[in-house]
Specification:
Layout: H1 2-36, E1 46-51, E2 56-61, E3 66-72, E4 79-82, E5 88-92, E6 96-101, E7 106-112, E8 117-122, E9 128-133, E10 138-143, E11 148-154, E12 159-164, E13 170-175, E14 180-185, E15 190-196, E16 201-206, E17 212-217, E18 222-227, E19 233-238, E20 243-248, E21 254-259, E22 263-268, E23 273-279, E24 287-289, E25 295-301, E26 304-309, E27 314-319, E28 326-328, H2 353-373
Parallel strand pairs: 4-28
Antiparallel strand pairs: 1-2, 2-3, 4-5, 5-6, 6-7, 8-9, 9-10, 10-11, 12-13, 13-14, 14-15, 16-17, 17-18, 18-19, 20-21, 21-22, 22-23, 24-25, 25-26, 26-27
């Protein structure tokens, strides 16, 4: 009797081993599938600094703040516009736009535009680039698909800074010599408004919620706050410096304004009032903020690119490259291709209904083996 009980226990244990083995195979297949379905990795953000004096673009890893490459150009680069996909960077020259591939950090193409393109912006969907041609009094619209100009929009003289609304429906252009900001409807590529500020507005940015446009004024030394709903100026904030480039934090709470006379002004966007001023030796021009909202990069400083802490609003140090970038020059990160699938042999990779069928077959085999052992 004890023998029969022992034999029964052995049979049950063998059945368990068969089931365990089958489950092991299933788990192995699922794990292999998970490896194959691994999504593309996202690398750390990269900054692209135009060096007008030397006709080059310096590429800097934001995480380590070290230079990882330099791309020589055949002319003086000026403005930078990175797209949201992390695949391309657009750099303006004297009468063309250089298209950089972030995968290779090299020039993939060039697109002829108007004369002296001083500003550029990429729409949030990365489909179009709006380029301000200062000497042509026009905006060139580049299709990211065809890498060609698909529209040219006449505007007031000396267009400079360009910004796009978060929903991509409006583009705002600051005009250095006419004291105005032009409003363009992207659906029709036509001018739908003009806002008079006076002075010399140069840098422009839109709040993350799309409710306000902020225009930095070089000669009036202030920032105009414009309601996008009414296209009216609702506030004016004195910066006390020759306001040039301007950027807003991802949470919309702070503005950083580069002053070409040697300082950076920090503004509360919730109260429209000054918070602090940081002296920076040199001629600060461009300003951008890292995607995580923790640091501000300012170009034009004598010692390189100035790095400011958003949390403490203090100068952390400098990145030792010559830079005069104007616009959005920090990418959100480059999409890298997924790793190649592992060489799993000889078992084939089974997916979908095939995997379900394999599971059923293994269960039936396990049950048959249990009956056979009894």
């Amino acid at each position: 009797m004890r023998f029969r009980v022992h034999h029964s226990m052995v049979a049950r244990n063998r059945g368990r081993r068969v089931k365990t083995s089958a489950l092991g195979v299933i788990h192995g297949l699922v794990a292999a599938g998970a490896i194959l379905l691994t999504s593309a990795a996202c690398a750390a953000p990269v900054a692209y600094f135009t060096d007008t004096g030397n006709g080059t673009v310096h590429i800097v890893d934001v995480a380590t703040q070290t230079e990882i490459g330099t791309v020589p150009l055949d002319e003086e680069p000026e403005a930078v516009a990175v797209d949201s996909s992390g695949e391309r960077v657009y750099v303006t020259g004297s009468d063309k736009v250089f298209v950089f591939s972030t995968a290779t950090n090299s020039i993939a193409s060039t697109v002829p535009v108007g004369s002296v393109p001083d500003g550029a912006v990429v729409t949030p969907d990365s489909k179009f680039v709006y380029v301000a041609n200062a000497d042509s009094a026009s905006i060139s619209v580049i299709s990211a698909d065809s890498l060609s100009v698909v529209a040219t929009i006449p505007v007031n003289s000396s267009p400079f800074g360009v910004a796009c609304s978060p929903d991509g429906s409006r583009v705002y252009v600051a005009h250095l010599t006419t004291g105005t900001v032009t409003v363009i409807a992207t659906s029709t590529n036509t001018v739908v408004g003009s806002i008079t500020l006076g002075g010399a507005p140069i840098g422009v940015v839109v709040s993350p919620d799309g409710a306000h446009v902020y225009a930095a004024n070089l000669t009036l030394q202030n920032v105009s706050v414009i309601s996008t709903a009414t296209q009216d100026v609702v506030a004016t904030i004195s910066t006390g410096n020759a306001a040039w480039g301007i950027a807003v934090t991802p949470d919309g709470e702070k503005l950083y304004v580069a002053g070409a006379d040697g300082s950076v002004s920090i503004i509360s966007a919730t109260t429209n009032s000054m918070i602090a001023t940081i002296p920076i030796k040199g001629r600060p021009e461009g300003v951008d903020i890292t995607p995580d909202g923790k640091q501000v990069y300012v170009t034009g400083a004598e010692l390189g690119v100035a790095v400011i802490s958003v949390a403490s609003d203090t100068l952390e140090g400098f990145i030792g490259v010559a830079a005069s970038s104007f616009g959005k020059f920090i990418s959100s990160g480059v999409q890298e291709p997924p790793p190649p699938p592992p060489n799993i042999t000889p078992a084939p990779i089974v997916q979908g209904w095939g995997l379900l069928l394999l599971v059923v077959c293994l269960m039936l085999l396990a049950r048959a083996e249990m009956k056979k052992r009894r």
